[in-house]
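Narrative summary of target 7.
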Amino acid sequence: MSEIAATTVHEAYAFACMKCGYGWEQSYEIEHHVDVHGHPFVVYTADGRRVPSPLSTPTCANCGGHVVRIMRAGRVAGVQELLRRSRTPSAAETVAKDRTAPTAAAPARHWRLSDLFHRG
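Modeled conformation, tokenized:
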């Protein structure tokens, strides 16, 4: 056997491509091993597949770019939730809209890369 010890930790990261603005999150199982010679090595898995370290050279799944910002987990999901909420009118807004004559629709809020970096 080539290894004598192993510990597994779970970590998640949020990513944002600086080229196209695509954002995503990924959870990893990180196995820390020490071989029989005392040399440490790490194995990353995501969705049951062995993957390279997300901290080395992440690749954008949307455009293939390698200029990717790595953030704590929840940053992308938080922005996506805010956008979802901003697109869903409240009951009061729906009633008010029904009472008025039809007008041009309000412009949709676009997702901005800077939304991920604003700390609130």
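The chain has a mean pLDDT of 76.
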